[in-house]
């Protein structure tokens, strides 16, 4: 009887087939490509340097808008013998400026929340970006199932075939040995590359960014950016030249004077075009990657957390060590010798 070895080889064959079918049936090539799309797009922005730039830009915008509303407008109104409310009526002649000043108190907290989420998830993003390793794209995860699956299906099928034929052959023994080695490789590779911790970080990141990568959130941020951009453009091209003319100065002189007296405002006016362009790029990147994020977030399925994926390989690896390993023990060899 070769029952033990034949059962073990049959299980090896079936496990190999399962490892081939699972990633293909689950759509893993497309899903892992979604991961790479998101990571490639946001890698620079989610780096330590990129997050610091976003934080500093947000602080610059907050300080500029705060000084504009609490110091600059009241003092400019006083110079014109007006109340701040009357001065706001004057600025009302510039609809984009009026709209921006009216809505900025609700717009900025929304961007603060997004930047805060990015800062909180920076480390998790960078860990997830190293799945399976720092130098290999996420699409390679598919092959961590396919390649072992093909090897196991071949060696398991060949070993089972020669075992059933009933002739003396070393192939069943070799097949079992290869299966044990493959099991050890799956376990060691999963643990050595820290896939469990990396996928836990990916899961936390997906949970945090799921509300951000949605069509309603993107549309809201897109409209907010349009409001801020129109506000900044009209302030620079129409409102400031008009106020400068009322003061008998050129726009450059007036801007320089304000920058000297109101430093936060001056710094903000100088850096606003760059800051808005950067944030607008980030918002549009989110819009372009909504589908890719959904694909990435559905690994291995929409209802199953990604942190379970390493356990599929670990459990398969342990099974390969235990079952074919048991068939290689003296009991299995005695059965074959007796037969």
TrEMBL record:
It comes from the Bacteria. Keywords: Membrane, Transmembrane, Transmembrane helix. The chain crosses the membrane at residues 140-162, 174-192, 311-331. This is Uncharacterized protein. It comes from Yinghuangia aomiensis.
